[in-house]
Design goal:
- The structure is a single chain.
- With 432 residues, this protein is of the alpha/beta class.
- It has 2 domains: 290 residues, Rossmann fold, CATH 3.40.50.1820; 132 residues, no CATH class.
- It is built from 16 helices and 8 strands.
- The protein has an 8-stranded mixed β-sheet, with helices on both faces.
- The N terminus is likely disordered.
Amino acid sequence: MKRIIATATLSFALFGNYAAQAEDFSYSEENAFMATIASTPPQQAAPVPAEVDVQQDDLSVRVLPDRTLPPILSGFHELDFRLAWQDQPAPLMFLIAGTGSGFDTARMDYLKRVFWQAGMHVIVLSSPTNHDFIAAASRSGLPGLGRRDARDLHTAMSMAVEEAREAKGIEITEYHMAGFSLGALNAAFVGELDQQLGQFDFSKIVLLNPPVDLYTSVTRLDALPYTRVEGVDGTDSFYEHIFDKLSRYYARRGTIDVQAGLFADIQASDDALTDAELAMLIGAVFRFAAADLSFMSDVITQGGLYVPVDQKLKVSTSLTPYLRQALFCNFRCYMETQLYPDWQTRNAEQSIEDMSQESSLRSIEDYLRDNSDIAVVTNADDFILTGEDYQYLVQLFGERAFLYPRGGHGGNLQHKDVVARILSFVEGTPNE
């Protein structure tokens, strides 16, 4: 755990000439964990239209018409996605959500508004590791393999485009794609697949805070909930500990503004959360995402790990006991107990490290290195990456590696300079 926190404070000077790109970077939050939680201060964010001003709608497609789901999951036969569209012919930007996230998260909504404001149609898709995608669009029901997830995503994207054309009459001039976190890794593999298929012929692809090696990154994320906090001896104690801090803060403040308190003001008070406490909060979020992934995959594949094969999940069935059990399984547990055994049936002589390598950026590095239309955006204190990962991204992408000294895991993606750099790459205009 100490090494993860150390990575979060890694000096940007490590990257030599790349440091010059961000000497005057005005993003103010220097704590990587706080940046990840709090995102960009409003005064530093690039302005975007309000949600109500965006011409948008939620649509759905039936990707797997033959899939049978238990009654309790009857609402997931179709894959929902969000479309924001222009009234004239325009480029279309696909956005792929991050680990365990749906298409309707706050980060995806912000990025959608960025590209819509820039004159593009936008289609936002859930992560292949989100429960809706697993149920409605994952053929295997076991996401986590780069090329297999790319095939599922590519199919869903194709159907979403056709639905957007039929439902809203959009006209598309070219295609772009961006993904965040695991969604960035997905985007890289979708791009490589499409190069072979020649369907979308993406003009630009942007990888936002991607992992280099999924197995390495999830191992680091899995470690966060186990951070040692003085006076705390378990998860329940930790949440009580945080609640006590927040309660004291709100009692003194005389108001209950959760967003302002948790994400900004409290850090300037006597009850400021420590790095260890912030790490545990982030780790808890990812642990719930891992539980959701493990449970849904078990249901879809009828694996019997959490739900007995002969157990019928009715609409009235409480899922609490099953999800509580799944909470004991983190991302690495999912890979070892569900994903790897399935992969090993086709790769009997290979290890889990071989599986991870096959789904890493290194496995498609020739495609990424030789394609001038793909860029990566990341931060020197992004704790899902090691120092070696950073060096690899610099070497692999060269001038197409847009590196920033701070911002944690996606915390600076709303910053005006970062947004401007992304748009200048996508639109092919010089970044002043």
